[in-house]
Amino acid sequence: MKLVIIPTYNERDNMEELLAAIYKIVPGIHVLVVDDGSPDGTGELVEDLIQRRYPDNLFLIKRAGKLGLGTAYIAGFKWALKRDYQYIFEMDADFSHNPQYLPVFLAAIQETDLVLGSRYITGGGVKNWSFFRRLISLGGSLYSRTILQMPFKDLTGGFKCFRREVLEAIDLDRVKSNGYSFQIEMTYRAFLQGYRVKEVPIVFEERAEGKSKMSSAIFMEAILMIWKLRAARSQMKISRRSEVEKLA
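Below the sequence we write its predicted C-alpha coordinates.
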Protein backbone atom coordinates (compact mmCIF):
# COMPACT_ATOMS: atom_id res chain seq x y z
CA MET A 1 0.00 0.00 0.00
CA LYS A 2 1.10 3.54 -0.80
CA LEU A 3 0.53 6.71 1.23
CA VAL A 4 1.22 10.37 0.50
CA ILE A 5 1.54 12.58 3.60
CA ILE A 6 0.75 16.24 2.98
CA PRO A 7 1.21 18.77 5.82
CA THR A 8 -0.98 21.84 5.44
CA TYR A 9 -1.38 25.32 6.83
CA ASN A 10 -3.68 27.63 4.84
CA GLU A 11 -3.68 25.53 1.67
CA ARG A 12 -7.41 25.51 0.96
CA ASP A 13 -7.00 27.02 -2.52
CA ASN A 14 -4.79 24.12 -3.64
CA MET A 15 -6.22 21.03 -2.00
CA GLU A 16 -9.10 19.98 -4.21
CA GLU A 17 -7.11 20.31 -7.44
CA LEU A 18 -4.03 18.66 -5.94
CA LEU A 19 -5.94 15.66 -4.63
CA ALA A 20 -7.71 15.17 -7.97
CA ALA A 21 -4.32 15.19 -9.72
CA ILE A 22 -2.78 12.68 -7.30
CA TYR A 23 -5.65 10.23 -7.60
CA LYS A 24 -5.70 10.53 -11.39
CA ILE A 25 -1.97 9.86 -11.74
CA VAL A 26 -1.80 7.03 -9.16
CA PRO A 27 -5.24 5.44 -8.84
CA GLY A 28 -5.76 3.70 -5.53
CA ILE A 29 -3.10 5.63 -3.63
CA HIS A 30 -4.00 6.90 -0.16
CA VAL A 31 -3.46 10.46 1.05
CA LEU A 32 -3.10 11.66 4.64
CA VAL A 33 -3.45 15.41 5.23
CA VAL A 34 -1.96 16.71 8.48
CA ASP A 35 -3.52 20.11 9.04
CA ASP A 36 -2.23 22.54 11.66
CA GLY A 37 -5.52 24.27 12.43
CA SER A 38 -5.53 26.31 9.22
CA PRO A 39 -7.52 29.54 9.69
CA ASP A 40 -8.59 29.40 6.03
CA GLY A 41 -10.54 26.18 6.59
CA THR A 42 -8.20 23.70 4.88
CA GLY A 43 -9.06 21.02 7.41
CA GLU A 44 -12.79 21.55 7.01
CA LEU A 45 -12.47 21.32 3.22
CA VAL A 46 -10.60 18.02 3.53
CA GLU A 47 -13.28 16.69 5.86
CA ASP A 48 -15.89 17.61 3.27
CA LEU A 49 -13.91 15.92 0.49
CA ILE A 50 -13.65 12.76 2.57
CA GLN A 51 -17.40 12.69 2.92
CA ARG A 52 -18.30 13.63 -0.65
CA ARG A 53 -15.59 12.17 -2.87
CA TYR A 54 -12.82 10.16 -1.19
CA PRO A 55 -14.23 8.18 1.74
CA ASP A 56 -11.87 5.24 1.25
CA ASN A 57 -8.49 6.81 0.44
CA LEU A 58 -8.34 10.29 1.99
CA PHE A 59 -7.57 10.77 5.67
CA LEU A 60 -7.05 13.74 7.98
CA ILE A 61 -5.18 14.52 11.17
CA LYS A 62 -6.36 17.84 12.61
CA ARG A 63 -3.95 19.50 15.02
CA ALA A 64 -4.71 22.32 17.41
CA GLY A 65 -2.36 24.92 15.93
CA LYS A 66 0.73 25.65 13.88
CA LEU A 67 3.11 23.09 15.39
CA GLY A 68 5.64 22.87 12.58
CA LEU A 69 6.57 20.83 9.53
CA GLY A 70 8.70 18.28 11.34
CA THR A 71 6.12 17.34 13.95
CA ALA A 72 3.46 17.16 11.23
CA TYR A 73 5.47 14.59 9.32
CA ILE A 74 6.34 12.66 12.47
CA ALA A 75 2.63 12.44 13.29
CA GLY A 76 1.98 11.24 9.76
CA PHE A 77 4.78 8.67 9.85
CA LYS A 78 3.52 7.22 13.12
CA TRP A 79 -0.01 7.06 11.71
CA ALA A 80 1.29 5.23 8.62
CA LEU A 81 3.38 2.73 10.61
CA LYS A 82 0.30 1.68 12.57
CA ARG A 83 -1.20 0.61 9.25
CA ASP A 84 -0.07 -1.57 6.35
CA TYR A 85 1.68 1.04 4.19
CA GLN A 86 4.87 -0.07 2.46
CA TYR A 87 5.78 3.15 0.63
CA ILE A 88 5.34 6.50 2.35
CA PHE A 89 5.72 9.83 0.55
CA GLU A 90 6.38 13.35 1.74
CA MET A 91 4.85 16.00 -0.50
CA ASP A 92 4.00 19.71 -0.32
CA ALA A 93 0.46 20.96 -0.83
CA ASP A 94 1.26 23.92 -3.08
CA PHE A 95 2.01 22.19 -6.44
CA SER A 96 5.73 22.95 -6.12
CA HIS A 97 5.97 19.14 -6.02
CA ASN A 98 4.31 18.00 -9.22
CA PRO A 99 2.20 14.83 -8.83
CA GLN A 100 3.46 13.68 -12.23
CA TYR A 101 6.64 12.48 -10.50
CA LEU A 102 4.84 10.01 -8.23
CA PRO A 103 5.16 7.08 -10.69
CA VAL A 104 8.87 7.90 -11.11
CA PHE A 105 9.36 7.67 -7.35
CA LEU A 106 7.42 4.41 -7.19
CA ALA A 107 9.60 2.89 -9.90
CA ALA A 108 12.79 4.05 -8.14
CA ILE A 109 11.79 2.81 -4.69
CA GLN A 110 11.60 -0.76 -5.99
CA GLU A 111 15.40 -0.86 -6.03
CA THR A 112 16.29 1.40 -3.11
CA ASP A 113 15.13 2.42 0.38
CA LEU A 114 14.73 6.19 0.20
CA VAL A 115 14.07 8.29 -2.89
CA LEU A 116 14.93 12.00 -2.87
CA GLY A 117 13.42 14.35 -5.43
CA SER A 118 16.47 16.34 -6.53
CA ARG A 119 16.60 19.75 -8.16
CA TYR A 120 20.37 19.64 -8.53
CA ILE A 121 21.15 16.55 -10.58
CA THR A 122 20.92 16.18 -14.34
CA GLY A 123 17.32 16.66 -15.42
CA GLY A 124 16.29 18.56 -12.29
CA GLY A 125 15.76 22.28 -11.82
CA VAL A 126 13.66 25.09 -10.41
CA LYS A 127 11.20 27.54 -11.94
CA ASN A 128 10.16 31.04 -10.91
CA TRP A 129 12.87 31.47 -8.28
CA SER A 130 14.94 34.59 -7.77
CA PHE A 131 18.73 34.39 -7.90
CA PHE A 132 18.82 34.93 -4.12
CA ARG A 133 16.42 32.04 -3.48
CA ARG A 134 18.49 29.74 -5.69
CA LEU A 135 21.64 30.80 -3.88
CA ILE A 136 20.15 30.03 -0.45
CA SER A 137 18.89 26.63 -1.56
CA LEU A 138 22.12 25.57 -3.27
CA GLY A 139 24.18 26.96 -0.41
CA GLY A 140 22.07 25.13 2.16
CA SER A 141 22.57 21.79 0.43
CA LEU A 142 26.31 22.37 -0.03
CA TYR A 143 26.72 23.48 3.61
CA SER A 144 24.85 20.42 4.89
CA ARG A 145 26.57 18.01 2.53
CA THR A 146 30.00 19.26 3.55
CA ILE A 147 29.48 19.22 7.31
CA LEU A 148 27.55 15.95 7.44
CA GLN A 149 29.71 14.26 4.81
CA MET A 150 26.85 13.05 2.66
CA PRO A 151 27.18 12.80 -1.12
CA PHE A 152 23.65 13.82 -2.11
CA LYS A 153 23.15 16.95 -4.21
CA ASP A 154 19.78 18.06 -2.82
CA LEU A 155 19.42 17.67 0.95
CA THR A 156 16.82 20.34 1.63
CA GLY A 157 14.02 19.15 -0.68
CA GLY A 158 10.79 17.79 0.76
CA PHE A 159 9.59 15.46 -2.00
CA LYS A 160 10.55 11.96 -0.85
CA CYS A 161 9.50 8.34 -0.69
CA PHE A 162 10.48 6.01 2.17
CA ARG A 163 10.20 2.28 2.50
CA ARG A 164 8.44 1.61 5.78
CA GLU A 165 11.53 -0.27 7.03
CA VAL A 166 13.48 2.99 7.01
CA LEU A 167 10.93 4.79 9.17
CA GLU A 168 10.71 1.78 11.48
CA ALA A 169 14.50 1.86 11.96
CA ILE A 170 14.63 5.58 12.71
CA ASP A 171 13.66 6.46 16.27
CA LEU A 172 11.10 9.09 15.32
CA ASP A 173 10.88 10.37 18.89
CA ARG A 174 14.55 11.35 18.70
CA VAL A 175 14.23 13.47 15.56
CA LYS A 176 15.19 16.96 16.71
CA SER A 177 14.44 19.22 13.75
CA ASN A 178 11.10 20.85 13.11
CA GLY A 179 11.72 23.29 10.27
CA TYR A 180 13.97 23.59 7.24
CA SER A 181 16.49 21.12 8.69
CA PHE A 182 13.92 18.34 9.16
CA GLN A 183 14.48 17.06 5.63
CA ILE A 184 18.23 17.03 6.14
CA GLU A 185 17.96 15.14 9.42
CA MET A 186 15.69 12.43 8.05
CA THR A 187 18.03 11.73 5.15
CA TYR A 188 21.05 11.83 7.47
CA ARG A 189 19.54 9.31 9.86
CA ALA A 190 18.63 6.96 7.00
CA PHE A 191 22.12 7.35 5.52
CA LEU A 192 23.83 6.57 8.83
CA GLN A 193 21.62 3.52 9.26
CA GLY A 194 23.07 2.22 6.01
CA TYR A 195 19.96 2.44 3.86
CA ARG A 196 20.24 2.90 0.11
CA VAL A 197 19.40 6.42 -1.07
CA LYS A 198 18.66 7.39 -4.64
CA GLU A 199 18.15 10.88 -6.08
CA VAL A 200 15.75 11.28 -8.99
CA PRO A 201 15.45 14.55 -10.92
CA ILE A 202 12.47 16.83 -10.39
CA VAL A 203 11.67 20.34 -11.54
CA PHE A 204 10.51 22.39 -8.57
CA GLU A 205 8.12 25.22 -9.40
CA GLU A 206 7.37 28.06 -7.00
CA ARG A 207 4.01 27.69 -5.30
CA ALA A 208 0.92 28.61 -7.32
CA GLU A 209 -1.21 29.91 -4.44
CA GLY A 210 -0.51 31.27 -0.96
CA LYS A 211 2.76 32.26 0.67
CA SER A 212 5.99 30.45 1.38
CA LYS A 213 6.42 29.15 4.96
CA MET A 214 10.16 29.96 4.96
CA SER A 215 11.33 32.48 7.56
CA SER A 216 14.65 33.74 8.93
CA ALA A 217 14.02 31.83 12.18
CA ILE A 218 13.54 28.55 10.28
CA PHE A 219 16.70 29.22 8.27
CA MET A 220 18.77 29.92 11.39
CA GLU A 221 17.45 26.77 13.06
CA ALA A 222 18.82 24.81 10.11
CA ILE A 223 22.25 26.44 10.30
CA LEU A 224 22.64 25.47 13.95
CA MET A 225 20.96 22.07 13.70
CA ILE A 226 23.48 20.80 11.15
CA TRP A 227 26.24 21.08 13.76
CA LYS A 228 24.08 19.39 16.40
CA LEU A 229 23.49 16.51 14.04
CA ARG A 230 27.20 16.25 13.29
CA ALA A 231 27.97 16.20 17.03
CA ALA A 232 25.42 13.43 17.57
CA ARG A 233 26.80 11.26 14.76
CA SER A 234 28.57 8.86 17.10
CA GLN A 235 25.28 8.18 18.91
CA MET A 236 23.58 7.03 15.73
CA LYS A 237 24.00 3.64 14.16
CA ILE A 238 26.55 3.83 11.34
CA SER A 239 26.87 1.16 8.66
CA ARG A 240 29.12 0.78 5.65
CA ARG A 241 26.47 -0.73 3.41
CA SER A 242 24.93 2.59 2.34
CA GLU A 243 24.72 2.82 -1.42
CA VAL A 244 24.52 6.05 -3.39
CA GLU A 245 22.71 5.93 -6.69
CA LYS A 246 21.76 8.68 -9.09
CA LEU A 247 19.16 8.61 -11.84
CA ALA A 248 20.44 11.03 -14.43
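The helical segments are 12-25, 42-52, 69-81, 102-109, 131-148, 164-169, 182-192, 216-231.
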